[in-house]
Design a protein that fits this description.
34% helix, two-stranded antiparallel ribbon, six-stranded mixed β-sheet, globular, Aminopeptidase, 29% strand
């Protein structure tokens, strides 16, 4: 099935399926809001609005609905796949290159297990769309860690990236590796 068609099910914020999925990842039930997922396809290494810099060609953005068509982007997962042709999945691989929360959204992000939620959603979509494998880039391969010159910032980022890119995938059943952590998907 078309990856975008699969994704559109998740984008409907009023559906019970999405609400249930988000509630499963809440740390504080009283902070449940009207969340949306937005799919973006564009050139890798480009800025979107609201402080999201997309490292991959495809990005799923977690946003909170503000009012009407307006949204407040709070986190994203970005990936690419050499086997996606016009968003139609062929048996292949999705490579996650970014799991990022938006700066200055720490209070909002504290209420959710947002990184796990985004990776779990992408894994479900990949499985339903016929992909054979999902890979998450290892923290030591992340260019945003390698480019840091300030020792204090490097230490802080290394800890955060290790938890997000190494520990989280391992807890979700990914097999650790030097370059990527891999999850083989069963049809």
């Amino acid at each position: 099935m078309h990856l975008l068609s699969r994704f559109s099910r998740w984008q409907l914020g009023t559906s019970r399926g999405l609400d249930t999925f988000v509630r499963k990842h809440l740390r504080d039930e009283g902070r449940f809001g009207d969340y949306r997922f937005v799919f973006h396809r564009g050139k890798p290494k480009t800025w979107l609005h609201a402080g999201i810099f997309c490292d991959g060609e495809y990005t799923i953005i977690l946003a909170r609905k503000v009012f009407g068509p307006f949204r407040d982007d709070i986190a994203c997962i970005s990936f690419h796949s050499p086997t996606i042709r016009n968003l139609v999945a062929e048996p292949g691989v999705i490579e996650v290159v970014q799991i990022q929360g938006v700066e200055r959204k720490e209070q909002e992000l504290k209420t959710l297990r947002w990184d796990r939620m985004l990776l779990e959603m992408l894994t479900i979509l990949a499985r339903e769309s016929g992909f054979a494998e999902v890979r998450v880039q290892a923290s030591r391969q992340n260019p945003w860690l390698q480019c840091v010159r300030d020792p204090d910032l490097y230490t802080k980022r290394k800890k955060v990236f290790h938890l997000r890119y190494d520990v989280l995938p391992k807890r979700m059943g990914f097999t650790p590796g030097e370059q990527y952590h891999t999850l083989m998907l069963k049809p």
